[in-house]
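thought: user wants a sequence for this fold. calling inverse folding tool.
action: design(structure=
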């Protein structure tokens, strides 16, 4: 699973509550089961669970609520492929999630989630893990470093990245992320070109004032939504080439950045719709008493939230 499972969990239930009708009196509010679960065939894990399944369940709540989310721990959660039961997910009380013990996500496989609860009834969702999209090359250009006008002894590193990918013929949905390996100058790094330590890398931000792929929806404001989201609807060449402007910070004289990594997620439509609509919802501004929030995509029947799959292709490259 991803490093942002807990952040995504909070995001799902916040956004789901944003879809509710706002009342000064919540007496008539009817909660639903809110589901938060993304799954991947990726075998690199930053939390020890790799490509196992983990699903968070909680009661949705009105936007005016100030109490904590109510975790649901007494549901029956089954994971299926077609009509075949793969595994009953077990509730982990320490992490507050339902998890698989033996079943891992596989590329090209579809999965069906069925939840039964004595109060909320039956809740279902389905999604699949797309085949990963190969990265042909990553070209870095125009690297610059300028002192920050805001933070003392910090420089702003900017560069452009062009990624060439082998986009399959069918319609595809993507989520693109960049990471940088920042080390102390005095530190020795014998595994400079290894992806094994990807969990120690830092997010690279997108420079919205630079030149970016025009059809992408980009989020730079929150870790749970970070990245560039796009489809292949407007690709003009095959293999496809897309460009982005990036930036990150270094402490002058103390830190160095020799390696970067690009992570291309080929995502299901459910994954894409949820995250893009969540970004648009976050950009609406905000005051729920005066603004109608944008609808957040959900593929949960008789509930709300997300259950969606994705695959991962990564490439690491030297900056110097």
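)
observation: tool returned 320 residues.
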């Amino acid at each position: 699973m991803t490093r942002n499972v807990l952040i995504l969990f909070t995001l799902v239930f916040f956004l789901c509550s944003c879809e509710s009708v706002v009342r000064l009196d919540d007496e008539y509010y009817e909660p639903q089961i809110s589901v938060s679960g993304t799954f991947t065939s990726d075998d690199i894990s930053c939390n020890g669970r790799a490509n196992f399944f983990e699903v968070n369940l909680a009661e949705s709540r009105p936007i005016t609520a100030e109490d904590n989310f109510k975790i649901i721990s007494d549901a029956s959660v089954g994971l299926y492929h077609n009509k075949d039961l793969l595994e009953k997910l077990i509730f982990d009380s320490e992490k507050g999630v339902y998890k698989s013990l033996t079943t891992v996500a596989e590329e090209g496989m579809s999965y069906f989630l069925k939840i039964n609860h004595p109060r909320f009834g039956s809740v279902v969702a389905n999604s699949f893990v797309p085949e990963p999209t190969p990265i042909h090359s990553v070209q870095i250009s125009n690297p610059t470093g300028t002192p920050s006008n805001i933070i003392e002894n910090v420089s702003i590193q900017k560069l452009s990245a062009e990624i060439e990918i082998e986009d399959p013929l069918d319609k595809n949905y993507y989520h693109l992320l960049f990471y940088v390996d920042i080390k102390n100058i005095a530190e020795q790094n014998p595994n400079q070109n290894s992806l094994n330590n990807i969990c120690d890398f830092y997010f690279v931000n997108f420079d919205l004032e630079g030149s970016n792929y025009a059809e992408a929806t980009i989020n730079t404001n929150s870790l749970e939504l970070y990245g560039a989201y796009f489809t292949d609807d407007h690709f003009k060449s095959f293999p496809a080439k897309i460009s982005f402007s990036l930036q990150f910070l270094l402490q002058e004289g103390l830190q160095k950045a020799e390696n970067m990594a690009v992570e291309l997620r080929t995502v299901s439509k459910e994954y894409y719709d949820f995250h893009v609509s969540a970004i648009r919802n976050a950009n609406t501004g905000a005051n729920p008493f005066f603004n109608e929030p944008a609808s957040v995509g959900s593929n949960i029947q008789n509930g709300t939230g997300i259950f969606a799959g994705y695959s991962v292709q990564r490439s690491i490259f030297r900056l110097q």
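thought: summarizing for user.
answer: Here is the designed sequence. The chain has two domains: 5-131+267-311, 135-265.
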